[in-house]
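The protein record filed here:
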Amino acid sequence: MQEEQKSTYWAILELFGHTTIAGQVTEINYGAVTFLSVNVPETRQQPTYTKLINPTAVYAINPVDETTAKRRAENLNKAPITAWEMDKMIEKHTQANRVALEANTAASMLIDEALEEEDEDRNF
């Protein structure tokens, strides 16, 4: 699919869902579909990243200068989407299940011991 770029400008975009994003905006066509490509600048908490936004999700576009957009991005502190890594997710849940099982086993052993002591006390 051929990519065609249009004008580039700095802006603060207000999106439906009460979301705001700030960065350098470029209109990009993929075939017959137009997206807004927002290059969010690096902040103290986040690396730079790009987000493609469907224009129908935009409530308002506020053109600003570069400094204003960068300050707003810093204040918003929006994080890019992190990739799901299935192996890590499975390991995390497996480990959590292992810990829970060990805790349940330990608790069961303590309960059994307490019940045995109680039975011994009754026998006397």
